[in-house]
Amino acid sequence: MSTGKLFNTARMSIIQYNSVLFEIKRLLNEHGIVFNVPLQLRSKSDFGDIDVITTCPREYLLKIFNYPTHHYNDGVLSILFNEKYQVDFVITSSEYIDIDTHFHNWNGVGMILGLMYRYFNLSFGNCGLKYKFYTDDKHHKFGEYKISTDFKKIMKFIDLDWNRYIIGFDTKEDLFNFFIQSKYFNPLYIFAITSNDRSRLKKRNIYHEFKDYVFDKMILDGKIFDAEPKKQICDVDGYFNTNLQTWITNQRIEYETKKQIHEKFNGDIIMDLIPNLKGKELGSFIYQFKKKHKEILLITDINNLILKEYELFSRRTNSN
Fold first, then answer.
1. How many whole angstroms separate alpha carbon 301 and alpha carbon 291?
2. Mind listing the pLDDT tens digit for each residue in 218-249?
3. Alpha-carbon gap, residue 232 to 226, rounded angstroms
4. How far is the C-alpha of 148 from the C-alpha of 179, rounded, in Å?
5. Which of the 8 DSSP states describes residue 136?
6. pTM of the model
């Protein structure tokens, strides 16, 4: 979440924070809104904003708060409450409100948990634990498999003490030490971020504080566990009762099939054969061709078939 910088508001003392939060809760409760407020570190004395996780649509939130100065981006509605305090409403669904709240708890649980789960080649975010299947260039997501939104199981799978989490945390050091105790904590892997991660994490102070804390204390002996991907997937399937391994196999088959189809039949090939076919007309021809010929990989002389189908396509287009 932002730290009051969106509207350039002053930071709130703990007294101001509690007072504003009381008013926010009162208004939401009066309108029967489902919401959670993420837990804050107990030693925290000032705040840039107030975070609220809710299932309420943004239009209704704006109505409740009498259409204040606001900004909406990627599921987060930020309002200027009483023209003085920034309040960020993270809008989610009833399915994800609990996991989304845990993600935002204690000023960094979700971010650190996400870093640790990369060790399993998994992704943890405010919608739970997932596996993302990427194309060969590693930049484009081809498919996504939802593993779990059970936060207790998600924590315990990587050896994090659920009972300790429930007690909560006074300071950032308490929070950092909680994650360090996991037998799967390996700082040399966790902080080996990609260029995409670097741009995303650059503004997350908690990430840099965590990294500095770990390396300042020279906690560099993270234990290496079995990094064989197949074993990791089997572990996931067994613990979460999922069918991830089969899903990945099917995704790989589907992806490779689509790659082969694209290599055999694509816009560049068609334009080489029919140079005057471009733009929307080209898109329409490709769509109709694929609709009619679903087994493209079985076609032996596809260039000849493209030319024949284009003749029919041209006649229909001209007759219209």
1. 18
2. 655 544 444 544 447 778 999 999 999 999 99
3. 8
4. 20
5. T
6. 0.82
Amino acid (1-letter code) at residue 317: T
Q: How high is the pLDDT of residue 166?
A: 96
- Give the model's pLDDT for residue 16: 96
User: Of 6-15, 137-146, 310-319, which has the strongest mean pLDDT?
Assistant: 6-15
3-state helix, strand, coil in the chain (%, to 5): 50, 15, 35
Please give the class, per CATH, of domain 12-91. alpha beta
Q: CA 285, 290, 292, 295 torsion: positive or negative? A: positive
Q: How far, in whole angstroms, is CA 30 from its chain's centroid?
A: 32
Task: Identify the residue whose tokens are 């966790």.
Answer: 190
Across the range 51-60, mean pLDDT stands at: 98
Residue with tokens 């995303």: 200
What b/e readout covers 143-174, taking b as 16+ CB neighbours within 10 angstroms?
bebebbbebeebbebbebeeeebeeebeebeb
Question: Is 103 within 8 Å of 89 (Cβ atoms)?
Answer: no
- In the three-class reduction of DSSP (H, G, I as helix; E, B as strand; rest coil), residue 273 is classed as helix
Tokens of 90: 């993270």
d(CA 70, CA 79): 4
SS3 260: helix
Q: Which two tokens stand for residue 182?
A: 């996991």
H/E stretch holding 77 reads strand 76-81
Q: Do the beta carbons of residue 228 and residue 121 sit within 8 Å?
A: no
Structure tokens at 200: 């995303």
Tell how strand 70-73 and strand 50-54 pair up. unpaired
126, 103 Cβ separation under 8 angstroms = yes
Structure tokens at 241: 């009762």
Q: Which of 64, 61, 63, 38 is nearest to 51 (CA)?
A: 38
pLDDT(105) > 50:
yes
Give me the residue label for tokens 């694929």. 290
Q: For the residues of 184-241, what is the DSSP string, one character each?
A: T--HHHHT---HHHHHHHTT-HHHHHHHHHHHHTT---PPP----HHHHHHHHHHHHT
Q: 15: closest CA among 52, 51, 47?
A: 47
